[in-house]
């Protein structure tokens, strides 16, 4: 069965890599301009005790979360300078949100959207990665072993391949 | 017993947050200049089939890995522009390395070092995060669900708190 | 009377702030693309003696003003990296001009324009601010107390709210 | 008397400008490394009504102020990329603070410090300017005519010229 | 003869310079959006011995060339931040290629393309310049006197002036 | 003879390249901090007619040259963000100068200096390259075929290898 399906669908190839193994920036000129959306998520795992200390420290004001949110948004706008073969994009919106989903488990959701000839997955992934690193920077004095778990794409829409959702 | 130890060691507090919840950049002026080292690691999980396609595409040349390595090194040098409350640092070395540790499991190790008044954990974490995102950018056409797992600090040396290693 | 006017026009709200006080980047996707223009102005106040020294030093060539002009133009192009919740914009023109309007009083005018889904006020404001800071940098050896006065928007055109001029 | 004092102290000259009017970056190599400190201040003038709306919007969380604070700190770290003839500096601390000093009058104070061969006035001035512009960006929907007044240096310490305070 | 030709074609003027000698950013707003393409080339001259050492060092992997290629592509995306009076552009493609054209003579070709109101010559020139400097950085230990020769535009297409090719 | 000299001096190897062909950033931590200086030069070749037009356009003010000078200085400060494997450096001085050395032949000289553990060749090379590209940007309307010739290092001082001068 696997063999059959492979015969019909040729093996996918990595982006940005030519047959000889050298790199290239994909030409997005011929692609259609469509609405693009991407949603990425990171989970930051800390001890329940660190969560308490962080919540307590930021009780009066939400500044720690504001810092991580802003860092994520600003990084999304710099994606083309950070990820070598991405295209510069004029994003129409970036969002970064925080939710405690279990004791000591902070979920960070980032979305990016625009109307463009190429997708915004890397913008959402970059936003969530830098927001998570900023949270790490502010909590590492509590517990150096805090880990970012499962940074990944949740959904993307737009372009020739249309909608995709993580299973 | 826990109570006793708590009495001696006051509860740790997040960095960069004042008692009123507002943010601040820590003053590193009074800190001693010592040799600083940090090692961070990310695991990128893909299907065994994607690993084969990636290895095959880059067989002739190592360009895909070179791109991710360079992106990580360049990002480490920009850490102070990405993570809001970090201090600018003149890094003396950054390294980024790749190892296949299991079928479809790519380990990325980054180290940062310098002689400074503050640590280089965020530089190593940023290098490994951007290297992992660059690998994602080059493999997402193979499999959009490739996930970064367990981005975390492995070791740090230098400064008042000395050496720390992940358990 | 105040009560009546309040009933008709609901109280304006700050941009970028949600009802719960957290931040957001406004979604400009649904907005119409129109011609956008903004004009901002700063006044730099120095002693008449400093004006003489500055004019004399730059008599042979206009380099000091060229430096401030270029710094302002380059900063306008970086607005999205400096002001956290602004959108990246492909500016079609930026100008920065200098006029001595009174003894020791240097007026700096900056304009920005493009065709976009959002306004260019922040680009003009950023251009004039960085041009003024660059003039300060070049004159502070003459007189450290030189002050930037009244950095503000003079006019903006385009978008749903149309034209606005400072009274 | 004035004539006498002029004879003893030759007329001050602008920094960065050669006798022929062309520009230069001052060579700070021969200067002593000393503790450097600078404090700059901006006043942002809005209507009392706008102050109420801003305070109300940010009551739940201090995010609007956190955004302006972070923007100011990040800009200070980029001063050498914004102001053409400044030297790159590894800042040991930057602070940005907000105080309502009268109805509708928001005072922003920024300080910068480090141990270096050149002063940090431009870093403090840049921090306060970008923090003020960010506040403008968040309040301009309330009142486009909000003005930054009196952006200036309050104090600097360190270097050959020692301490200076605004009168 | 020269006189005649001058009568028909008025003397060309430098871009970005006003009649009074001051600078300006050209307003591209009124220009038509057309397909833009530019191709620039640099020649890097080294001894035949250095070529052998470089080829030998990079035999196993093409990383040195990948580094120069990526540096060139990333620099092209930053052109508006490097060349003062250029306009920000969302490039649809950038390429950087290497060819040994004679013993010790490395040719670097860069192209840039997009659909825009202004040309992409500076993007191609910047890509090739930074790629060449990166090759120099990696070979200077072999031979400090390696020189970049003849960095120039080869071809440009699009815009009112249409196609141009170096003779 | 050649054999003898080779026995004493092992064949030089490119920097930044490991025996397996992969890249690395050199660890400058163990190197001595010494005074570093580098001087690079570019020649920009245009027709004598273009030189006349450029000189005439900039007669009133030296702004075109000021723009190229500032672009070069600002780029030198960004070298670590442009050339992948270079180390961030706090430059104490950068200079960029212009001389007409023959009809239509503009010489651009850039120097960089600081006290550091690594050399400043790439900073001087980057300054001169970006200054030359900026001159090209301002003169390309006169003559698209203007070429940068012979961008190379003229001299460097400091470090273990000491002084080197181009022959």
Mean pLDDT of chain A: 89
> What oligomerization state is this entry in?
homohexamer
Low-confidence stretches of chain A: 1-10
Please compute the radius of gyration of chain A using only Cα atoms: 19 Å
Order of helices and strands of chain A: HEHHHEEHEE
* CA(first)-CA(last) distance of chain A: 22 Å
Largest sheet of chain A: 5 strands, antiparallel
**CATH architectural type of chain A:** 2-Layer Sandwich
Helix content of chain A: 25-40%
How would you sum up this structure, described in words?
The structure is a homohexamer of 167-residue chains. The first copy, chain A, is α+β, with helices and mostly antiparallel strands. Chain A has one domain: 2-Layer Sandwich (Alpha-Beta Plaits), CATH 3.30.70.640. Helices cover 33% and strands 28% of the residues of chain A. Chain A is built from 5 helices and 5 strands. A 5-stranded antiparallel sheet of chain A has the order 2-3-1-4-5, with helices on one face. In chain A, helix 3 (63-77) runs antiparallel to helix 5 (121-139). The longest helix of chain A has 19 residues, at 121-139. Chain A is elongated and about 50 Å long. Chains in contact: A-B, A-C, A-D, A-E, B-D, B-E, B-F, C-D, C-E, C-F, D-F, E-F. At the A-B interface, helix 2, helix 3, helix 5 and strand 4 of A face helix 2, helix 3, helix 5 and strand 4 of B.
